[in-house]
Amino acid sequence: MFEQFVVGFDLFFTFQYIMLIILGVPMGIILGAIPGLTGTMAIALLLPLTFTLPVVPSIALLMGIYKGGVYGGSISAILLRSPGTPEAAATMFDGYPLAQQGKAGKALKIAIYSSVMADTFSDLVLIFSAGALATVTLKASPVEYFSMLILSLTIIGSTSGQSIIKGLITALIGLVFGFVGVDPLQGTERFVFGSMELSAGVGFLPLLIGLFAVSEVIVQTEKMVLKDSSESRMTLKKSDNPDDNRVSWPELRRCLKTIFRSSVIGTVIGAMPGVGPTAAAFIGYGAAQRASKTPEKFGKGEIEGIAAAEAANNAVCGSNLIPLLTLGIPGSLMAAILIGALLIQGLPIGPLIFESHAPVVYGIYLSLLFANFANFFFAHLLIK
Question: CB 28: neighbour CB atoms within 10 A?
């Protein structure tokens, strides 16, 4: 492992690779802060740019955009009460009330600290566990893979909110779209209705853009049309007290337990295919509220609520690569797009990647860790 890590170190630490991460992280923060332009959609749109790049810098660019985009969603959630990304919805519960009190700086900075710490924790879990899991998964039969997929579908029950019927309907629609195309085993056509275009299946990138980008345009247009012209514009005041625009050590220390709890929750959920950061954020937020001695403060500007939500959704970033690298199953939408990037580079998906391209894997690991430091720096720079 150490020898492969050294080779991966040599692959990563070049001027080109580092500059791509430095370019990708602020791009992700900016796109994530704009409601509707999520980091996942940015990756989908910029994926063609990686065709001419080597594998490590291409993945480094995409991961930089993704990590920046996950944090960037909290900026608009805190300042505009409109989450820039779906996973930042739980951050809005306490972030916006804190901003209304003139403490937007405090809210944004606790989001930075919790995001970077949780993201680093998740990356370390990936680095130290993915190789061992790959050894185990090499012995897995189709029965184990089928059981894993069934487990992913059963999680719908815990993430459907108050309406389990809506969750089941959504899952069935997803399965129907997945059936479209040619059966990979028997070669028979399914739900193509005589169309040659559908024989290749539903394209994942067009599906993502249509699902997230077009739907958000329709929702925002509806809001503009139905908005009352007499509605007064809401503005946020800024406190003159310097303590309201920073996170003190006692406040950060009080949040450390919450950050660690949400980091574990996000890491575990990220390793489960098909769940994603949005569910992790709400589960982490709920766990923090139940564990708090003052749960009545949540929803009114409690920094632990921000820390819980941001730690949980950012912890998914690293761990959702665990099922991708070990099982060949994407843990989230971003990981699904990364499958396309890896296939473009001619890399095998699944545990065999550790045998045939181990230095590349460790180069990707280093890019994940460096992206966290870049996220910490550019987040402080851009929130001003």
Answer: 32
